[in-house]
Amino acid sequence: MREAQELSERRACELVGMRRSSYRYVRREELPGLRGRLGELAQERRRFGYRRLTVLLRREGWAVNHKRVYRLYRQEGLGVRRRKRKRIGAVERQPLTIPRRPNERWSMDFVADALPDGRKFRRLNLVDDYNRECLAAEVDTSIPGARVVRVLERLGELRGLPEVAT
After folding, report:
1. How much is the pLDDT for 37?
2. Is the Cβ–Cβ distance between 102 and 128 less than 8 Å?
3. Phi-psi category of residue 17: left, alpha or beta, with phi > 0 → left and psi -120 to 50 → alpha
4. Is a pLDDT exceeding 60 seen at residue 1?
5. With DSSP H G I counted as helix, E B as strand and the rest as coil, what are the percentages for the chain, rounded to 5?
6. Which helix (H) or strand (E) holds 4?
7. Which of 82, 129, 138, 146 is the most buried (most CB within 10 A)?
8. How far is Cα of residue 51 from the mean position of the Cα atoms in its chain?
9. Residues 6 or more apart in contact with residue 87 via CB below 8 angstroms
10. CA 101, CA 108: separation in Å to the nearest integer?
11. H helix and E strand count, the chain
12. Side-by-side strand order, sheet with 164-165
């Protein structure tokens, strides 16, 4: 357009709505061997992502930044290999028996929430599974194990301990 209308570069870019720096941009040539070396390093160091590979390339003398390495990393289809979780052996699940009388089985659970000012708090709930009676509800910002033991001992003195606890 510029040559056909004999416009200045500045005026032509202004009409098109383009910055002059974008108009003058010349893409740099890719460094020969960089793509191959990146692939080799990724095979040697499978747990390294593109950022750590960038550091290794720089140590070897390559003039690269993380953006160029990331672009090549994605083009090559590289990615950090996810570790596979260890599978716990399959155990046949047993359904819970339905309690037939009070104090046969208790359930214990922690609930966490936050106050409007952002402070977090926890609540320990102890429930009799037969009649869904709440036996204890302890609320505090922290409920350590010793406090849970105290609550259970207090309930044991008042009601006696259950046959089963879940």
Report:
1. 94
2. yes
3. left
4. no
5. 40, 15, 45
6. helix 2-5
7. 129
8. 18
9. none
10. 18
11. 7, 4
12. 133-140, 120-128, 105-114, 164-165
3-state secondary structure of 105: strand
| Count of positions (residues) in the chain | 166
Token pair 């037939």 is found at 100
Q: What is the pLDDT of residue 139?
A: 94
The pLDDT assigned to 4 comes to 66
What sign does the dihedral 128-132-133-135 (CA atoms) show?
positive
The confidence score (pLDDT) of residue 79 equals: 85
- Distance between CA atoms of 50 and 52, rounded to whole angstroms? 6
% of the chain beyond a pLDDT of 70:
96
In sequence order, the β-bridge partners of residue 165 are: 106
Give, for 66, the enclosing helix (H) or strand (E).
Answer: helix 66-75
**Rounded Cα distance, 78 and 163, in Å:** 56
User: Is the pLDDT confidence value at 165 over 70?
Assistant: no
Instruction: State the Cα–Cα distance between residues 54 and 159, nearest whole angstrom.
Output: 65
SS3 14: helix
